[in-house]
Specification:
It is a single chain. The chain has 3 domains: 3-138, Jelly Rolls (Sandwich), CATH 2.60.120.290; 151-241, LCCL-like domain (Ferric Hydroxamate Uptake Protein, Chain A, domain 1); 247-427, Jelly Rolls. It is built from 6 helices and 27 strands. It is elongated, with a radius of gyration of 27 Å. The protein is an alpha+beta fold. The strands form 6 sheets. Strands 19, 20, 21, 22, 23, 24, 25, 26 and 27 form a 9-stranded antiparallel beta sheet that branches. It has a 5-stranded antiparallel beta sheet with strand order 1-2-9-4-7, with no helix packed on it. It binds 2-acetamido-2-deoxy-beta-D-glucopyranose (2 copies). One 2-acetamido-2-deoxy-beta-D-glucopyranose (NAG) binds at residues 307, 338, 435.
């Protein structure tokens, strides 16, 4: 539109606004908004439900200077014939796009001349209308799609698209999983987040392969997205990945330790000990000693991969025994190398530790991916919240450091983000003495103190442990499935009756 009509229209719409917004104010009509350096997603309030009466949502979105903005309008449904009090409008420093409302034609995509646009949505009094959903990206990503595209929108057997940041929490189903593929009616970008191909905070490029459908699709929880079971479909789709997703837990040099180690009086590992805490195993999971809330951040399950590796994902389960309804609902990840300090895995867009959504029952495995990958020899799962008691099995996925190219992709997408690899290396060069050249006093001080503490702690724990063993009939807590055998040697978690109704029942029998 030309500049003259822009002035007139702008006057018309600004004057008719029920409220004037201060600079930077969003108004109360905005819904889900996720913005990252290069892309993002924005909806009206309650989307895809009906937007409220008399609201305004105004937000300026931008991509890096020197780039141009692409807007994709996934859905515009605004009840009005005249666009007088209900409309969607885009303003750049030179142009005006819209207003859009009612049955006026809405372009699917706007390629702007600038890197910045102000989105304004306003509503008066109305009965229905979903409002809007839009996504944006810089012109580096001409294959941008919205969060609403499903695989059955595309006919090709192979294609690549760019998903914006912020599709995870948009309403809409996905069915299936990473390994078997997804039903073709699934939302593409949400499925890519579920599969661990892209992070919700970042968005990114996805490569899709279309295949013949399956008779049934199995849903699981992964990366905070629940996929549903699905029925027979003609087609399904899979994502191509960089191949850095082998199971690391099965490699011979891998060892598992924990903050609490169950051992028999003979000193051998028994049920609930960390050595068996593998997702593939039939054994009981690892379980913590007690279930008090103060165990947050104190209990951990550690995997030593034998050498520094690239870790791209983790699968966790709870106890996997129906007699023990124990599982970890959320956790954080810590990692370190031979001589470095433990570091907490952080989210991409925030500087806070990333809290992963864990299990929601004792049985089903839940997957989470690390984007960017963790590069370390040791990793710990540190439970934050749990049901009844901390109980865990883990499986790690990844590859040798030299394999897989996902960190390269990440660098390209977000030049300002420091990857886990870089942080780790930076820390090693700065603060940790090289293992090859021990520098006397420093090393001694660093190593002796923890050893002493561990020794003291060990004595205390051993004493407490012995005492407790006498007080409780632990046999009664064993799952019925277990065979009778070294019965008297098997200590099991002493479940405090207050925190575990099922244990109470078992004890009384
Ligand atoms: C808006 O207000 C009208 C009249 O008060 C009411 O009938 C309508 O349901 C309201 N719409 C919404 C979305 O709340
Ligand atoms: C870490 O220790 C292991 C064995 O203890 C050794 O093989 C490896 O080279 C060490 N890695 C580094 C980076 O020092």
């Amino acid at each position: 539109m030309v500049a003259g009509s822009r002035g007139l229209l702008a006057l018309l719409f600004v004057v008719s606004a029920p409220r004037r917004l201060q600079a930077g104010e969003l108004g109360d009509g905005c819904g889900h908004i996720v913005t990252y350096q290069d892309s993002g997603t924005m909806t009206s309030k309650n989307y895809p439900g009906t937007y409220p009466n008399h609201t305004v949502c105004e937000k300026t979105i931008r991509v890096p200077k020197g780039k141009k903005l692409i807007l994709r309008l996934g859905d515009v449904d605004i009840e009005s014939q005249t666009c007088a009090s209900d409309y969607l409008l885009f303003t750049t420093n030179s142009d005006l796009y819209g207003p859009y409302c009612g049955s006026l034609p809405v372009p699917k995509e706007l390629l702007l001349n600038t890197n910045e646009v102000t989105v304004r949505f306003e509503s008066g009094s109305h009965i229905s209308g979903r409002g809007f959903l839009l996504t944006y990206a810089s012109s580096d990503h001409p294959d941008l799609i919205t969060c609403l595209e499903r695989a059955n929108h595309y006919l090709n057997t192979e294609y690549s698209k760019f998903c914006p940041a912020g599709c995870r929490d948009i309403a809409g189903d996905i069915s299936g999983n990473l390994v078997d593929g997804y039903r073709d009616t699934s939302l593409l970008c949400k499925a890519a987040i579920h599969a661990g191909i892209i992070a919700d905070e970042l968005g990114g490029q996805i490569s899709v392969l279309q295949r013949k459908g399956l008779s049934r699709y199995e849903g699981i929880l992964a990366n905070g997205v629940l996929s549903k079971d699905g029925s027979l479909s003609d087609k399904r789709f899979l994502f191509t990945s960089n191949g850095c997703s082998r199971s690391l837990s099965l490699e011979p040099e891998t060892q598992i330790r924990a903050s609490w180690q169950w051992v028999s009086e003979m000193g051998e590992e028994v049920h609930w000990s960390p050595g068996h805490a593998q997702v593939q195993g039939q054994d009981l999971s690892w379980a913590s000693r007690d279930s008090g809330k103060n165990r947050k951040q104190r209990e951990w399950l550690e995997t030593d991969l034998g050498e520094k590796k690239k870790i791209t994902g983790i699968m966790t389960t709870g106890s996997t025994q129906s007699n023990f309804n124990f599982y970890v609902k959320s956790f954080v990840m810590k990692f370190k190398n031979n001589n470095s300090k433990w570091r907490t895995y952080k989210g991409i867009a925030s500087n806070k530790e990333k809290v992963f959504q864990g299990n929601s029952n004792f049985r089903d495995p839940v997957r989470n991916n690390f984007i960017p990958p963790i590069v370390a020899r040791y990793v710990r799962v540190v439970p934050q919240t749990w049901h009844q008691r901390i109980a865990l099995k883990v499986e790690l996925f990844g590859c040798q450091i030299t394999q897989g190219n996902d960190s390269l992709v990440l660098h390209k997408a977000s030049p300002n983000t420091v990857s886990a690899t870089e942080r780790e290396d930076e820390m090693i060069t700065k603060s940790v003495p090289s293992p090859e050249v021990p520098t006397g006093i420093n090393i001694t001080a660093v190593t002796i103190l923890p050893v002493l503490l561990a020794l003291l702690l060990g004595i205390g724990i051993f004493a407490a442990f012995r005492k407790r063993r006498k007080e409780i009939h632990m046999d009664q807590l064993r799952p019925r499935k277990q065979t009778v055998g070294s019965r008297s040697n098997i200590p099991l978690p002493d479940i405090s009756p207050l925190s575990s109704p099922s244990a109470m029942i078992m004890k009384r029998k």
